[in-house]
């Protein structure tokens, strides 16, 4: 019986490690935060029932904070500590459309051309995405790499030798002089006519999430920089 329990524990640990290794870091961090908040609140309730309020109250406040709630907001305990801006950036290439949520940093993509048109990238496995990328143009492939870096952080090591033709067309930076104002507004998540201050604010916010030094995407960071330059040129004319 002990041997069976040990085998189950080893298999469970292995599966958990595999999940953590391939999981989207943003989703994983959010899940851990929510899970920690729920555990802290449950522990606070348990301790409170036993009459240890001096421990239960701060533990409950801590758990509520992890879940995004604060007892000090204008609406009392159930006031959110942070409001979502609802802002998102969109980047398009020949084969892909990618959307970045400004608040969560979540990157989602969809195929917009070819046999797989209309399908979300979340529907594909890593091997399927690598195979799909082999049929893309260099710009779409660079955009796909940005998605893979978020969803499968170790994908480059895991797919060595299976990316024939990828490197030959790699795009390290965005093309210059081709972006329209409409595209620039979509990339920065702004409405047409945004002020210089709004452009700068959106640019700084996105670069914090996308800058290569922060583990972000070189290609997307270059697109964000080009979008800022495109809109600032408009204000200078």
CATH level 3 topology of the largest domain? Helix Hairpins
Approximate shape: flat
Which strands sit side by side, in order, in the main sheet?
Answer: 3-4-5
Order of helices and strands: HHHEEEEEHHHHHH
Radius of gyration, CA atoms, in whole angstroms: 22 Å
Query: From the coordinates shown, what is the CATH architecture of the largest domain?
Result: Orthogonal Bundle
Number of helices: 9
The end-to-end distance, rounded to whole angstroms, is 78 Å
Biggest sheet character? 3 strands, antiparallel
| Strand runs, count | 5
Protein described:
The structure is a single chain. It is built from nine helices and five strands. It has 237 residues and is mainly alpha-helical. The strands form two sheets. Strands 3-4-5 form a three-stranded antiparallel β-sheet. The protein has a two-stranded antiparallel sheet with strand order 1-2. Strand 4 and strand 5 form a beta hairpin. The protein folds into two domains: 79 residues, no CATH class; 149 residues, Helix Hairpins, CATH 1.10.287. The chain is flat and about 65 Å long.
Summarize the structure.
This protein is mainly alpha-helical. It is 54% helix and 8% strand.
Task: Please give a handful of descriptors for the protein shown.
237 residues, mainly alpha, Helix Hairpins, 3-stranded antiparallel sheet, two-stranded antiparallel sheet, 8% strand, flat
Fold blueprint:
Elements (H helix, E strand, L loop, with lengths): L1 H21 L2 H25 L3 H14 L2 E2 L8 E2 L7 E5 L3 E6 L5 E5 L14 H8 L4 H14 L3 H4 L22 H8 L7 H15 L7 H19 L1
Antiparallel strand pairs: 1-2, 3-4, 4-5
